[in-house]
Structures are given as structure tokens and as C-alpha cells.
Amino acid sequence: MFRSVQSRIASVGLLVGSLLGGALIASVATAGPSQAATKTHGAPVVISMLADINAPSVGFEFQEAITGANAAVAAVNQAGGIHGRPLKLIICDGQGNPNTETACANTAVSDGTVATVGDADFINPTAPILQPAGIAEIMDNPASPVELANPVSFPVNGSAFLGVFGQLLLAKDYIHATKISVIANGPSASVVETNAKMAATA
Q: Is the pLDDT of residue 123 over 80?
């Protein structure tokens, strides 16, 4: 079921470049009006962004993600797409709801997604759904330690989880703490607190 590694690597390289505002976007911006856009053809390369875009229940609004992601995809397509094939973006709003986030991940699989890009679904980890389908997670914000161990996950940062675990180890090893208070706030607070308690117990 896993897709070609070479195909995934090629797509990943272009996707990361586009979303970082790298060479692809720069080349489009500097091409000038006299240089026509390269035409794309064939079946689209499908990518998805799974994000809590409208999630007032967890205090999160991420409307600018839609504008940024669509602009990046438009730049890639204007520059010739992925090996000549158009790039197609599907955005799924997890709404800060674990059931909706799970549904978004399942939809990404059924839509034939080759990679998710810029994920920001804070409540429920999607790696257990995406990984078996061979879908890479590019520049995601991990919602759980399970995503940090996913071989096809390439997070933009270590998330709050690594920071919490590091703090627990420092408290134990350097000040020999036996009791630690965990105070978490923000969209992923409940998940951070749960995992921190498990790590502290271990």
C-alpha cells in the first residue's frame, strides 16, 4: 500500500520548499510578467492540510492558514507543478474536535493524499491513520508523542511534548525532584497534561 519512496521524496522536497517560501516561490516572484507560467497536465498530486482552523472551544483560530496554503500551491502550479502534474490541496478543519480530526485523517486516505502539509490538529494524533497508508506528514505540529516516532513524519518542531519531557528529566536528574506540578494551557493543554503525567509516572 505504500507509495513509491522516490515519488514521495520528490513531492516532499517540492512541498517543503513551497511552504517555507523557498526557491519555488522565489522563482515565481522574480520571473516577471514576460515569463509565462508553465502549464501542468495529467492527474493532480493530492496533498491535504489537517488543521484546527475554526476551533473556538480550544481558543484557536487559524484562518490565515487557508490563504497561505492556497498561495503556496498556486505558486507551485505556476512554476510547473510536480514533474508537470498539478498540485491539488484539500483542507480539512478539525475544529478542535477529536472525532472531526479523525474523520479528516480518514478522508485524506480516501482522497488519495500523498502527504499532509502544515498540519495543526492539536487534540487527536492522526499518525496511526496516515502512517499505514504511507502518507507523509510534512511540517506538522505533533499532537502526541506517537507522531514523534512516526518514520514518515517530519515535524516543524518538537512540539510541547519534548519540552515537557525534557523539563521532567531535568527536574529529576538535577534537583532530584520527587513531586512535580504540571500546568498546561492553550489548544493542546489537555493532551499535554495527560502525556506529562504518564511520563512523570514512568
A: no
29: cell is: 516572484
Sign of the Cα pseudo-torsion (36, 38, 44, 45, in order): negative
User: What is the rounded average pLDDT of the residues 26-42?
Assistant: 53
What is the model's pTM? 0.66
Q: Please tell me the predicted confidence (pLDDT) of residue 165.
A: 74
3-state secondary structure the chain: CCCCHHHHHHHHHHHHHHHCCCHHHHHHHHHCCCCCCCCCCCCCEEEEEEECCEEHHHCEECCHHHHHHHHHHHHHHHCCCECCECEEEEEEECCCCHHHHHHHHHHHHHCCCCEEECCECCCCCCHHHHHHHCCEEECCCCCCHHHHCCCCEECCCCHHHHHHHHHHHHHHHHCCCCCCCCCCCCCCHHHHHHHHHHHHHC
Tell me what the mean pLDDT of segment 85-90 comes to: 96
Over range 74-96, report the average pLDDT.
94
Mean pLDDT of 93-112: 93
Cell 512523570, residue located: 200
